[in-house]
Amino acid sequence: MIARRLWLCATAMSFIAGCASVGPDYVRPAPVISAEFKELKGWKAATPRDTEPKGEWWRVFEDPELNRLEEQVAVSNETLAADEANFRSAVALVAEARAALYPGVNFNPTISRSGPNNDLTNVQLSASWTLDIWGKTRRAIEEQGALAEESAADLANARLAAQSALALAYVSLRQADSLRALLISTVGQYRRALDIAQNQYNAGTNAESDVITAKTQLLGAEAQEINTGVARATSEHAIAVLIGRPPAALDIGRGALAQGIPNIPVGLPSSLLERRPDVAAGERLMMAQNAAIGVAVAGYYPSFTLNGAAGYLGDPFIKQIVGANPAWSFGLALAQPLFNGGLTAAQVDAARASYDASVATYRATVLTALQQVEDALSTLRVLGQEEKIQQEAVASARQAVQIALNEYAAGTQNFTTVDTAQATALADEQSALSTRAQRLTAAINLIVALGGGWHDEP
């Protein structure tokens, strides 16, 4: 009868607990956004959906070596391993918070002796259940669940950051390889110019200063060619660390910088910005901070705890007593805060301030995302125009070098003209190569700014 009353009381209190949750319900604040992007009409930002697959975005560059390296990032990168462990910890905290919804049951057997033949056994099951009448526990579960989702978004953001860092390092490595190839070709051209100057000096048709100038130019180009090894080694070491290997264990063969960038669709879908993991993480943090307000507000209300115990007390060796000394108890405890020096009010104020800060951070993250997309688009547009002109300049400079060399060999031009033409040609080719690398970098930055690619489907 008593057990039945206890069960009815618990059921009633549980029903009451499911009817209310103190604190505000979460409503996502509207970010500061524009209807479309300035650089590409028709774009607009929308609701984050970072859980959608992004696919292997680096494959748009059609580089097998880059593909091979990128596939190792998620498997071997130690930073990602740490973030993955943090995510598992956040999931465990959700389970920990959810456990507070259920009663705790303990088995507490004791055996004591008070005399030579006076054994006393106490076998007891005890239970305690703090009822979630005001929704404090549910708010705590909501908070930890949002934090777990934030941790998942942080993991996705770290993965995307590692992938993009590897791609950027790979561009730097290939730029160094292409610059080295350019300088090797230039050294060959300078050596031919030196041979012409030397032959003309030997024939007595030109001064020795032409030979010295040609040799100086050749040595300078050779020094630049050697110097490219610094940038290449640094980039290769960075790639090794990103895939979780010591620098000495990675040796990437030489190759050339890609000639062009992937084609960017004219009308990109408006939903792409929704997939940015940092935007999603900011939103999930707002959700968690909002739930934390409810946890703090619950401190104003009383807590109700059901306690119960049942067992046997007596001498286990006297069968007549077994069953004759059952022991049980149950009760309801109430705890109502009356005075705590303003602690609860301060906790509520702190929770609301943290929520306001998370809202501001979220909006700032969205604005930064918009800025990064605009920056990448404008960079690609401007550099594309610049590269076209540079290619024309390179072609013209190469022609000028050939004409100057022919005229110098014919004795109708001085070596200063050859020297100037060759220096101009090298500078123009280096600028064109640098611009091409910048365009590839901007393409990678655009992919990252969009959360991992510009296609809805991987």
Any overview of this molecule?
The protein has one domain: Outer membrane efflux proteins (OEP). The N terminus is likely disordered. A hairpin with a 5-residue loop joins strand 2 and strand 3. The radius of gyration is 37 Å and the shape is elongated. Strands 1, 2, 3, 4 and 5 form a five-stranded antiparallel β-sheet that branches. It is an alpha+beta fold. Helix 5 packs antiparallel against helix 6 and helix 5 runs antiparallel to helix 9. It contains nine helices and five strands. Helices cover about 60% and strands about 10% of the residues.
Question: Which terms summarize this structure?
Answer:
disordered N terminus, 5-stranded antiparallel beta sheet, alpha+beta, Outer membrane efflux proteins (OEP), 458 residues, 5 strands, single chain
Fraction of helical residues:
55-70%
- Helix count, per DSSP? 9
Overall shape: it is elongated
Q: What portion of residues belong to β-strands?
A: 5-15%
Series of H and E elements: HHHHEEEHHHEEHH
Which stretches are low in confidence, meaning pLDDT under 50 for 5 or more residues running?
1-18, 42-48
- Chain-averaged pLDDT: 81
CATH superfamily: Outer membrane efflux proteins (OEP)
SS class: alpha+beta
The first-to-last residue Cα distance is 63 Å
CATH fold group: Outer membrane efflux proteins (OEP)
Tell me the number of structural domains. 1
Over all CA atoms, what is the radius of gyration? 37 Å
CATH architectural type? Up-down Bundle
How many β strands by DSSP? 5
Largest β sheet strand count, sense and barrel closure: 5 strands, antiparallel
Supply the CATH class: Mainly Alpha
